[in-house]
Write a structure and sequence with these properties.
about 210 residues, alpha/beta, Rossmann fold, five-stranded mixed sheet, 10 strands, about 20% strand, globular
């Protein structure tokens, strides 16, 4: 898949997305290979599970999480349009308590579990008519054979290949500046949520060898 080819060619095992959730004490690293695999799974799911094609409208209404990044990379790989916090879409990815009355027929529920477990796997009740993201996406292959673009073709690269730290990717501009543009430029991203201690944030920046704090 071409989406992250520039990262895979440079160093497939180097951490490209590091996600801290201070509320749960979790820290997860995602290499270019891992991100590529997740994006492929999502792209395959969108096409095969929901019969969507390039140009479909994908809604993402999720709290800051690595899963939202994986979903967006998968949609980009399949050349679909991404809408953050919009329900006027072909398919909506949202939290278990956030299904709106005007949501589309195809609604995919994503938990905030740091390890990506699904609704049923956490002992929660899946809303009627919705799809459980975790166990569903894992069914699909981690190789995508569709005509995916290269990430720098669809996301403006940052000026330098920096390691960027941010505390929110809840809006499209923040997601682009904090994660997608650094990745497009050959850099990497650190996202920290669930924390308000400035000293702790500074410590994370030092440990992760961050170049830029947004």
């Amino acid at each position: 898949m071409e989406l992250l080819r520039h990262l895979l060619n440079e160093d497939p095992s180097r951490p490209r997305l590091t996600f801290y959730n201070e509320s749960t004490g979790s820290r997860l690293d995602f290499s270019a290979t891992t991100l590529d695999n997740w994006a492929a799974k999502v792209a395959n799911m969108l096409e095969q599970e929901f019969d969507l094609q390039a140009g479909a409208d994908i809604g993402v209404s999720l709290p800051t999480s690595w899963q939202s990044v994986a979903i967006i990379l998968g949609a980009l790989a399949a050349r679909m349009n991404i809408h953050v916090d919009s329900t006027a879409v072909d398919i909506l990815f949202c939290g278990v308590d956030a299904i709106a009355e005007d949501a589309p027929a195809d609604t995919v529920v994503v938990t905030d579990d740091p390890f990506g477990r699904g609704v049923a796997e956490l002992g929660l009740e899946l809303p009627a008519g919705s799809v459980d993201f975790g166990p569903t996406v894992r069914f699909y292959g981690d190789q995508y054979i569709g005509d995916s673009p290269a990430l720098p073709e669809v996301i403006p690269p940052a000026e330098t290949a920096a390691r960027v730290l941010s505390t929110s990717i809840s809006t499209w501009p923040k997601l682009v500046s904090s994660v997608l543009s650094p990745l497009a430029a050959g850099g990497s991203a650190v996202v920290v949520v669930g924390m308000s201690d400035v000293n702790r944030l500074s410590h994370i920046a030092d440990v992760e060898k961050v170049d830029v704090i947004l």
